[in-house]
Structures are given as C-alpha cells and as structure tokens.
Design a protein that fits this description.
Layout lengths: L17 E3 L1 H7 L3 E6 L11 H14 L4 E7 L3 H13 L2 E7 L7 H5 L1 H8 L3 E5 L5 H14 L4 E3 L7 H21 L5 E6 L3 H13 L5 E5 L4 H19 L11 E3 L12 H14 L8 H13 L8 E6 L15
Parallel strand pairs: 2-10, 3-4, 3-6, 4-5, 7-8, 7-10, 8-9
Antiparallel strand pairs: 1-2
Helix pairs in contact: 2-3, 2-7, 3-5, 7-8, 7-9, 8-9, 10-11
This protein binds pyridoxal-5'-phosphate (PLP).
C-alpha cells in the first residue's frame, strides 16, 4: 500500500503522542497500559474523525466541492470535526442531526459539540430518532446540488473506504513509532461505532503483517452486526489501497458487552472510567465512546481476560467536548 496515491489534506502535525499511563498501570496492578493520543489531532479540540477527514476533505477538494454535508447524533464529535475542516477550507457545512438519544436535557441539546457546531456556523437540520440518516443526507445533498451548490457527502462517522484510509495511516504511524521506541505492542484497544476506525486499523495491521490484534469495544450495535460492519469495510479499504489477500474474518473482534442501555446512554462503568482517567492521569475521556471503551478495557483487565504480562495500547479517539453535554451525569 502506498497512501500518497490518494488526495490528502494534512490537518495536524503528526505523529500523535504515544505515552505510558504510569498511574493507571499501577492502580490496576498491570498490564502495562499506553495511550495513543488521537484526541490531540488539533482541529477544534481534535479526535479520530480528523484522520478520516484528511482523506475525505482531500477527495472533496480534488472534485471541486464547495460544501461538506454529513450527519450524526446531536452530540456528534464527527459533525463538529467536519464543521471545523469546512470552516478552515472556506466551505459551507450542512449537518443532519438525529435525535438518537431521547432526552429533554438542556446540556445535551444545547451544549458540548452542538454548541461548537453553531459557533462554526453549520447549517443544522434535525431529524427524528430512527431516521435512515445516510439516505436523508444523500437526499439533502441532491437538493443542494439542484440549488447550484457542489456538496461532498460524508457518511456518518466518516466511515467509508476513503475515510478509513486515515486509520490505515494511523496503524502505520503507530507501528513505526513503537519500533523506533523499541516498544513491543501486544494489543490495541479502542471504542468502535461507525466502524471506520477499526476497519482502517485492522486493514493496516494486516497489510503490514504486524501481528498486533485490535479489539474494538462497541458503543451501539450488538457484536455480530458490529463485527460484520467492520469486516465489510476492512475488506473494502484493503482492496482500495492495494492490500492483497483480503482480511481474515478472525482479525475483526468487537466486544459489545459495555454498551449498556444503548447508544449515548451512560453506564456506571463509563462514569468510573471517565473519573479514573481524569483523576489519575489528567486524561479526559468522553461519555459516549472513549469512556465506554476504557470501561471495557478496565473490566477485561479485572476479569483477567487481558493478561498482566501484556503491553496494551488504548487508542484515545477524543470526544471530551461531549462531557459538557452530559454534565448532570457527573454531578
Ligand atoms: C466516532 C468516534 C469513535 C468511533 O469511531 P468509528 O470510526 O465511528 O467506529 C470513537 N470515539 C470517539 C470519541 C468518536 O467520536
């Protein structure tokens, strides 16, 4: 694979830091836990969508778009990061926000990510929970085109084969960083939602023959659906960037035991994980994704399913701005 063949807009100075979590490691009595700081990707407080947007915005520019359109939940980190990239490029941004979490909470509806969306002048349109959001977005994009705009449509979470290239690049970056540091990595753990992050990471690891397993902690779908979504996209991105031989089905593993009552619904494990990382490490997780991802990692360590002798890298995918949309949960 040779990623320079694809249009790309460099959005942050890489690589993101790879740091040891000394206090968390000591607190849990091992394994050795490291963190890959993809919450530090710059653009409007950063997060994992910035890596995907390097390739998506690159493609949008290459085809002469003047408008980015995308979709997500009200507290979508992806929409906020897309809005920031559009602002930086002088493009318009339209976002369809789904009322996926049923609530009247003022913070959820007005603060956190959606506050920042408004500051960045996104044209926000709301849709009821349960809407087929990608279909609604494509329909809206057609209307914009008919009105004379040149919209570039980005699916939820930026998760298609173009966006997933960002995490093929991250896999390369992480392994190069680890090799330079002389750091053996036994496993990568992260929160998985719209599947692009895990699909890109897995494809990258398989393409490099790294032999490093990736464990996704699900935040929405049940395991069979999540693994099928990740595997399908991993196959697509692998074919797209020239990784031969396909992606073995068993390279895709998601643990969806930490979703709790549903997407964006708080769990005791998430609250504990957010507090623990803040207090022990000064690292801010988020309530919807990285908090549940870390809750999964902590629980699997406590149950002995992740061994004390391992060295684990937790990929921090960002999202801390979402904490302000969930202030009541931490009171
Ligand atoms: C979108 C997101 C994820 C999940 O990444 P996917 O590529 O959608 O699976 C994880 N963490 C945060 C903070 C996110 O915003």
């Amino acid at each position: 694979m040779h990623l320079a063949r694809f249009p790309r807009l460099k959005l942050f100075p890489g690589p993101t830091p790879l740091e040891k979590l000394e206090n968390l490691t000591r607190h849990l009595g091992g394994p050795e836990i490291w963190i890959k700081r993809d919450d530090c990707t710059g653009v409007a407080t950063g997060g994992n969508k910035v890596r995907k947007l390097e390739f998506l915005a690159g493609a949008a520019l290459a085809e002469g778009a003047d408008h980015l359109i995308t979709q997500g939940a009200v507290q979508s980190n992806h929409v906020r990061q897309t809005a920031a990239v559009a602002a930086k490029l002088g493009m318009r941004c339209t976002a369809l926000l789904e009322h996926r979490v049923e609530t009247n909470d003022r913070d959820y509806l007005q603060s956190g990510n959606v506050l920042l969306d408004r500051l960045m002048d996104v044209a926000i349109e709301y849709r009821p929970g349960g809407t087929d959001m990608n279909a609604a977005m494509l329909a809206r994009a057609e209307e914009l085109r008919a009105e004379g705009h040149k919209p570039y449509a980005i699916p939820g979470g930026g998760s298609n084969k173009v966006g997933a290239l960002g995490y093929v690049a991250c896999a390369q970056e992480l392994m190069e960083q680890a090799d330079q540091m002389g750091l053996r990595i036994d496993r990568v753990v992260h929160a998985t939602g719209s599947a692009g992050t895990q699909a890109g990471l897995v494809a990258g690891m398989v393409g490099m023959n790294a032999g490093v397993p990736v464990l996704g902690i699900g935040v929405r779908a049940p395991r069979p659906t999540q693994e099928a979504n990740v595997h399908r996209l991993a196959e697509e991105v692998a074919a797209y960037c020239g990784i031969k031989g396909g992606i073995p089905r068993e390279a895709v593993v998601a643990n969806c035991d930490y979703v709790g009552p549903g997407y964006g619904q708080p769990t005791p494990g998430m609250i504990e994980a957010v507090r623990m990382l803040a207090k022990l490490e000064g690292v801010l997780l988020d309530p919807v994704y990285s908090g549940k991802g870390m809750a999964g990692l902590i629980d699997l360590i406590r149950k002995g399913e992740i061994g004390k002798e391992e060295r684990v890298v937790f990929l921090h995918t960002g999202g801390a701005v979402g904490l302000f949309g969930y202030a009541g949960v931490f009171e």
